[in-house]
Amino acid sequence: MAAREKLGFLRQRFGAAIIRADLTSDRRLYVFVEPRSVKEVCRALFRELDARYVITIGADDRPWSGCFMVAHNFAFDRDRLLVSVMCLLPADSPRIESISDVVPAANWAEREMRDLVGIEAVGHPYPKRLVLPDGWPEGLHPLRKDVEWDEAPDCDESGAGYDFDDPPEGCTVVPFGPFHPTLDEPAHFRLYVEGETVRGCEYRGFMVHRGIEKLAESVLGYNDIPIMAERICGICGCVHNVAYAQSVEEAVALRPPPRAEYIRTIMLELERLHSHLLWVGLACHIVGFDTLFMQAFRVREPVMWIAEKISGNRKTYGLCVIGGVRWDITSELSDELKTVLDKLESEWHNVARAVKNDKNIQRRTCGVGVADASVVKEMGLIGPVARAAGVDIDCRRDHPYAAYDRVDFRVITAQSADVWGRLVVRTDEVFESISIIRQCLARLEPGPIQTPIKEDLPAGRFGLSSVEAPRGESHHFVITGENNRPRRWRVRAPTYQNLQGVPSMIRDAQLADMTIALGSIDPCFSCTDRIEAVDVRSGAVKVWTPRDLREMAKRAQSGRHIKDS
Amino acid sequence: MSWFWAIIGCICNAALVLVLAPLFEGILRKVTARVQSRKGPPLLQPYYDLFKLLGKEDIESGEAPWAQRFAAWLSMGVVLAAVCFVPMGFNAPLGGAGDALVLIYLLMLGGLCTLMAGLAAGSTYSLLGMSREMMLMITLEPLFAVAMIVGAVHANSLRLDAVLGGAVYEGRFGVSGLLMLVVSAASFQALVQRVPFDIPEAETEIMEGPLSEYSGPKLALFKWARMAKLVVYAALFVALFVPWGSGLPFPLGWVLFWCKVLVLVLLVTLVAATHARYRVDQAVRYFGGMLVIAVFALILATYGY
What we know:
The complex is a heterodimer of chains A (565) and B (305).
Chain A: H1 2-14, E1 18-25, E2 28-33, H2 38-48, E3 52-61, H3 62-65, E4 67-76, E5 81-90, E6 95-97, H4 107-117, E7 120-122, E8 172-176, E9 188-194, E10 197-204, H5 212-218, H6 225-230, H7 237-251, H8 258-286, H9 290-311, E11 320-321, E12 324-325, H10 331-357, H11 359-365, H12 373-379, H13 383-388, H14 395-398, H15 419-443, E13 462-469, E14 472-479, E15 488-492, H16 494-506, E16 509-510, H17 511-520, H18 525-528, E17 537-538, E18 543-544, H19 546-557
Parallel strand pairs in A: 2-5, 6-7
Antiparallel strand pairs in A: 1-2, 3-4, 4-5, 8-9, 9-10, 10-16, 11-12, 13-14, 14-15, 17-18
Chain B: H1 2-35, H2 45-54, H3 65-83, H4 100-121, H5 124-155, H6 160-163, H7 175-191, H8 203-206, H9 216-241, H10 250-273, H11 280-302
Helix pairs in contact in B: 1-9, 1-10, 2-9, 3-4, 3-9, 4-5, 5-7, 5-11, 7-9, 7-11, 9-10
């Protein structure tokens, strides 16, 4: 219904500029648009129909259509609809008008598209390098199909090739990162600080980009990718695992059996539990309250143990294959899980009360790191950050997947738009997750856990999947392909959007609030960074140059021993 | 021969504090661990830590290595000097030699060591820690000074032996003394640099601030001085505000004194384990409020209340 309405609106408004539209279901709409009208279509969707910006995808489609492809994805959360505005660009001039001035949230995605696929967003307000390392040669775009997956160009190691902006008048630069005790992963915020007040910042991240998307498009097979996708993140890996599997299943119209859907739901909620407990602990640690940090971790531990019993691992469950799951939840496991949940619920009540009644935590979090509803809209923020600002979005309810349409739960929101709100939202979501798992366990009926696949999966189909990770929506986009692997797989982790909201959260804040403001989005840099790490490891006798490491990796890949290196 | 006994007393006090301080730190860590559902390190861990650090290579780093070294030695020296003026179960060995002002200055010098350490390191984070230390010092030190002066006003003398030993409560109702007790107790965490007022070091914000460039023996000195500071301040607090029972015959009074110090350390531990860190502006506002009460108490004291 909603999909037809939106399509009708676009056709009426843009007429012949709408070349083609695919309505694969009433929850998905793929609109092919003339390149010159893309910006206006996006403006209409984002400003007039109030869609939420999700992500921009660039793809090298030259081997098949002879063109480059760009897709701007939007979500209508009330109508349970995901829309993809697509267009084809000629192979000799892959240029498209930038939408970042209409949709500020597209800022990073368009820069990434330029870096990785070489599609130029013309008129971009801040066309600086985003993903590629400093010395990476111009004109080499790793996600193009004519670039080999293991190609490693000679980088300029001198550190040239990237210039930071000048700080504003009267400010000193405080480097926050690349390594900092509260960042467990490398990322570099250059803070412009006046006294103790932060006036602005520049972000340089993507230092642990591992090329997972490129691997998937050139080396791995459909059922290898879920295992790799899970390694995108050490905290919410299962989310990527499920989101990838779902996007492929949607593209080829394959439905996993109900039992598998329930198991996916249970594991996703287990993961949310451990992630939220971890986050509340870390937030307390950041503001110097180590007792609650330790207690949160103690309460969390049984969740890890039960996950290990189910999947064999505390984390990285290795859950999904296309069309089902790999682990069953037996009745013994189910009973044990119920016991764990009961204990967790009563203990979490205590921790939640301690956190919510603590005056010092309130003092450190109220009014800190504010991102109100307008920032949420402009920067496309999601998850607890959006819900804490009163924006009632949650993919579990808005774009139901797995078994979420068969369970009851509340979407927790707050109105304060600050770190305190995010803390309250996450603390309370724990109880909802417990309730969801209980409902799933009660409804789990015997049956198969995988749908058999008899033929090759068809090529050239599109699939979208949004999964509510603990930190917000994880969005996967897949174009199926030949040789048992996708042509294009784009992962948009929640931190990718939420991180873009950080500069406005910390502007004019105290430097002491920087860590908790950044921490409040629960940043996951490994999710955001997905290509290649260039690193120098210095041993006592030998310095490994990046080239040595690459050679070693290649030898290991081809099966030879590496002892001679 | 009184100078001889004074020197012996100083050495005894200093040795006692140096030896006991890591033990108190060990107790503190162990109790913290229990509160946090952890097992905690062995009671003697702080001794091992210090020995390990003392045995490490002495690395020069930062903008001005000599100033860095000097700051570390000075911080230890200041604590050891202060020890001579504080009763540790007996009368202070140099109690009659200096007056309350000497002690105030000495303890302030301790804060200056942190400033010097921050300046000497010269990194962004150490400078930030330094500016925070300065803000805290400006608001915190007057509180301690006022507490001493209230005692001095009541005792009608700045002599240390007169000020300590419960002089703060003398006067018609002892109201000013009780007020100062509240103020000092409420700011004690900051005097001994523990959570929620460990702002200049704040590991998760500015990575130990002024200490970030320290390592090896110099770091050991700083850490040891910090542990000793806890003992000295606790002893001073007991001498100023909890003098009861110190008149008991030798072993009893002595044991009672150290029990009181231990209780105070345990209180510090519990407060540290159950609070989140303040931001520096919040802390300054907090101490500002305390200062108003303290000045009020001082006015009361001058009128004999």
